[in-house]
């Protein structure tokens, strides 16, 4: 689907559709512009796909007109090829000179007002604010765009918006009204278009291959690094790219390390091997997870896996457009309750997935989950990492997770690896 005119993967009309939807949300909130920092949302709205987001990059999306993208100047060629319809402003590395007479000064008064409230008690000491090149160019761009007195949404919760940059920008545009952006862009991005779902399906097929390769490699005496090598080999040979999160490969000794991965150690007979990973195609992810017993499965494995699978399938059956996310979780929990596991609960039974950049395959921040009491209403085109996990349950251990799509009529599994008891 590569667009020969722009050099981006999706057609230009797809990006226009996304911007139109975001701008509709801006209009509802009374915003003249929004300032976006997350690489997922910048990619979603412009097509910019690179690893340069370790340095500040910001997208100004005005209510109408050309978007403005601020990055390091060295990203010029990448922006030209991948986001040709934005106004690109590059900033230089190194120390910034003091502002000249014609430059917009950035105040170092760090206790003025942030998001409409004082940032500190005036009697307390804080480090002075050192203006950054990214903040200075963003301030200038906002004034040049006529937004110096506008109502601007800014995502103060973004992992990718350093305090010094955010504070420097807001202090440099003191007459603007700054409002929290919250999930305005995320709420649009959470529903995938048919073109996006096609990529998620491709990623799911790669995930299946990665998982099957990991299972086939495992066994007594096999070093965890060999399993990891098999996963990466399948990932790239099948046409995937680097995922937002390193595949998770843990055994009994490191099982409780929630987001830890492989260590240089060999599997032993009787170990429980945890595998969780996601294929990735053009930044779209499709996670999958399984337990593998090393050597042989314990006697209780069949029963606990049956409950685990029943709970997952019940949750999947509950997933339909219009259903509350909290109700999906309660359906999952109800299966456990019926099997004398009412004492056991999880913080969620899945979460939204899609575009992701390191260090996450679900975007920055806490994932939007299928959580107890969540009022999130499911919509056709959403995709979730559906999870059923029984660890230290009192009757044994089991883990199943798959990528699912919310369809017009219900839920479809996109990853398909065997969900029975696995051992090697």
Give a verbal description of the structure.
The protein has 424 residues and is α+β, with helices and mostly antiparallel strands. The protein has ten helices and 15 strands. Strands 9, 10, 11, 12, 13, 14 and 15 form a seven-stranded antiparallel beta sheet that branches. A six-stranded mixed beta sheet has the order 4-3-2-1-7-8, sandwiched between helices. The chain has a two-stranded antiparallel sheet with strand order 5-6. Strand 13 and strand 14 form a beta hairpin. The longest helix has 24 residues, at 194-217. It is globular and about 70 Å long. Mean pLDDT is 91; it is low at 2-6.
* C-alpha geometry: globular
Strand content: 15-25%
Q: Calculate Rg over CA atoms.
A: 24 Å
Helix content: 25-40%
* Helix-strand string: HEHEEHEEEHEHEHHHEEEHHEEEE
Number of helices: 10
Number of strands: 15
Task: Describe the largest sheet.
Answer: 7 strands, antiparallel
Distance between the amino and carboxyl termini? 41 Å
**Derived structural class:** alpha+beta
Unreliable spans: 2-6
Mean pLDDT: 91
